[in-house]
Design goal:
about 120 residues, alpha+beta, Flavocytochrome B2, Chain A, domain 1, five-stranded mixed beta sheet, 5 strands, about 15% strand, signal, metal-binding, heme binding, iron
């Protein structure tokens, strides 16, 4: 009976040792969690190709945003498509937008407009 109990305890301890992460030794390489991206540069001609409901990019203050995934959710309906593939700065900063849009637009940022 003691052998069975000892075997069970050792099995549990061994299983736990496999599941618990081990501390890293000093000097070992660590996994890079995130590498800051260098902004991609796009020409106005490149952006202009993305002018459809299923492929919609806009320019706001010389920054390029891929808003394709947001087109169907846009509270203003198809108004977002009025400047698809073009500069939407004026419309974006219009009185119809609350401050919430200024927080959420960064999620769609893909690069900068090449001057």
């Amino acid at each position: 009976m003691m052998i069975i109990i000892a075997t069970l305890i050792l099995g549990v301890l061994f299983g736990a040792s496999l599941l618990i992460p081990r501390a890293r030794k000093p000097g070992t390489a660590e996994v890079v969690k995130s590498i800051p991206k260098v902004p991609q540069l796009y020409t106005h001609a490149e952006v202009s190709l993305h002018n459809k409901r299923t492929d919609c990019w806009v320019i706001i203050k010389d920054k390029v945003f891929d808003v394709t995934s947001y087109v169907e959710e846009h509270p203003g309906g198809d108004a977002i498509l009025d400047h698809a593939g073009d500069d939407s700065t004026e419309g974006f900063y219009g009185p119809q937008h609350g401050t919430r849009v200024f927080d959420m637009i960064d999620d769609f940022y893909i690069g900068d407009l090449q001057q």
